[in-house]
Design goal:
Layout: H1 10-27, H2 46-50, H3 52-61, H4 66-70, H5 73-85, H6 90-101, H7 107-122, H8 134-143, H9 153-173, H10 175-196
Helix pairs in contact: 1-10, 3-10, 6-7, 6-9
């Protein structure tokens, strides 16, 4: 396995550069607002080039399950960029906001943040209103009276299910993602062959 960037085969570096270009299709001008978490833009660095195999596995893993996609920062960024092309990014932004919300430990911060999330995503005619039923909206409103880390669980769960059944399959079928998978597969094969082809040192 290549230990330094200088020792990396030229083909590996070329593949890595292609990765950057392909991922750029998804991530061009894709940036989550500061209020919905700190996902931000995907930033390419030599670290990703040196960890080309891990990145290939990351990209290929996104099609294995929705959980793997959501557990990958690169996957979330790519999925968010895709959702923006469909004007449906509010569902993912709400899910991310809920994930950050559940990490809060201060009761005061929980109450304040809960109302902010409700106003942004849940209430009728909210700026980024998510697609949930009236009963779930009212249940969430009631939960805000005594905000806890679980007060958005039902709404978050329904939003996640909607994304998994609706947006996620379209993401996997999108030309940009399929192209990225082809690049990941090729790069993975290239890295594997270069690893086996390394000369023995005596």
């Amino acid at each position: 396995m290549c230990r330094t960037l200088a020792a990396f085969p030229t083909t590996c570096l070329e593949r890595a550069k292609e990765f950057k270009t392909r991922l750029g299709i998804f991530l061009h001008k894709s940036e989550l607002g500061s209020d919905t978490g700190s996902v931000g833009k995907f930033e390419w660095s030599s670290k990703h080039i040196k960890e080309g195999r891990n990145f290939s596995e990351d990209v290929l893993g996104w099609k294995e399950s929705f959980d793997l996609l959501l557990s990958s920062k690169n996957g979330v960024a790519a999925f968010h960029a895709f959702l923006k092309t469909e004007f449906s990014e509010e569902n993912l932004e709400f899910w991310l906001a809920c994930e950050e919300f559940k990490k809060l430990r201060s009761a005061t911060k929980l109450a304040s943040r809960a109302h902010k999330i409700f106003e942004e995503f849940i209430r009728s005619e909210a700026p980024k209103e998510v697609n949930i039923d009236h009963e779930t909206r009212e249940l969430t409103r009631m939960n805000l009276q005594a905000a806890t880390a679980t007060c958005f669980d039902v709404a978050q769960g329904k939003t996640r299910t909607l994304m998994e059944k609706d947006s996620y399959p379209r993401f996997l079928k999108s030309p940009a993602y399929r192209d990225l998978v082809a690049q990941a597969s090729a790069a993975s094969a290239s890295l594997a062959s270069s690893s086996h082809a390394e000369p023995l040192h005596t």
